[in-house]
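subagent[fold] <- orchestrator: predict structure for attached chain, return tokens only, no commentary.
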Amino acid sequence: MVTFVGLLTAAASWYTIDHANRMSFAAIAEDAVQRLSDRLDTHMLLINSAEAFFEATGEVPSAEEFKVFVGHLQKSEQFTGVQGIGFARYVRTGPQSDEAISRELERNYGIARAPWPETTEETRTAIVLMEPQSARSLKSLGYDMYSEPVRRAAILSSLAENRLRASGSVRLIQETATDRQAGFVMYTPFFARNSGRILGFVYAPFRIGDLFDSALNRLPALPVHISAWDGEPSDSSLIYESPGKPGTHYGVVEEIKTSLEVAGRTWRLEVHPSDLYSPPSDQTRTFMLMIAAVLLAAALAASSHSQQRTIEVGEALREETERALTEREFLLQEMKHRIKNMIARVLAISRQTARASESLPEFSKSFSARLQAMAASQDLLARTAWQGADLETLLVQELKQLFGDDPIEDKFTGPTVELNETATQAFGLAFHELATNALKYGSARSPGGVLDIAWSIRSQPGKKAELVLTWSERSPEPLDAQDAEVLGGKKGFGTKLLDATIRGELGGSITSVKSDCGIDVTITVPYDRVTSRPKILKTAKR
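subagent[fold] -> orchestrator:
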């Protein structure tokens, strides 16, 4: 009887450990697939950002403007796997359109090249923009993607559905004779603002091997072997396979099959443990327990202890897995929320700047300056893990960005105020607009100008505390009438932006009083809306 109980306990132990091992590897496999999904989502956001830039501009930008935009994307996003972002003209096939594309390539990149290859199709989709520039990207310019059936199917699908769509597996034009990989292309259409006519497609080519490696090889490394097919698994549809062969471990599930949706296409995935995989619990104790149960009935006590220990390990692993999944979901949602908010803010600024600009150079200069102000605020937030930023540090950073180290006499007075994330971004843009106006029309235009900036926490009985900031400019000589009118608050984009940030985002108020030689601007916001530290710290003077 004791032997029977011992054998039964050993069987239960084997089952528990095996189940725990299966759960462990299933969690690892799910993490690997999620990394791929996150990387694809990031790259699709890059394409959507480029499309938003085209829409904000209202037309196909020049090669230089597009280069600057993609350069800004490269500073904050990972480009591994994606070969760049480009634009392909959608035109009817014919000598006139071929000549127009040749002229555009000459104008954009200084190369003399006609659309290629020859085609019998009625339509061409020739590449005219591609960034970042490299020997590989220049090689693809002028290529007619509509001439190739797999790319053509994705282009037509994107045009019909008016959304981002991916192609099947293709050989990229950028590929060289060595280190060849399967690739695919994503397309999204771009239409003329007034007529609604299709002008072309914003697109991005991907090397599938680089895409998988960049997602799977980041720390912590995952001990998995992945095979991927575009559609149903077959020799012809295989698009990726991890180096080496799957590992062999007794008691580990042979494979996990799943799928991944990629812009209208379905990738089938099989995930196996790699040679580096080691099960969290092995079956050695189970075999020893079985032998001990046969040889000695007294091993019942030891087997019970082993079973209890195994159950505890399984429970701990389950709890750890659930915790990790919860944290990952939270971080993913927070990242998506930040990216969406950032894109929405950039789109709003780009549209408003475009309306207020009389030329593309003016738009590019104003838009780039406001993006730099946003980037400076983001940099301060990143240093504190998005907890907040010091008001004085933010102010000094924005003024130095426009004025240099010490261009005018300036005085800062006020207590230490830790701004929260929303207030940091709002005040960063507000300081940028006020400093820009001072540089263009106010005290910073001539030597001897004076800028006094003071802030305080105002508390009144029965009312919530308020942060009050005063921006006072004085010029040595009276301002001319036109500059005084602009500085005094004529409803331009800068004034609208201040309204949106101070009134709309922080629930505050902003007033300005102009004089012959300057202006006084007062910003008042609820203190609890701008800081996560309600305690008032010591006064800072500069």
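orchestrator: received. Logging for downstream: The first strand starts at residue 85 and ends at 92. The radius of gyration is 31 Å.
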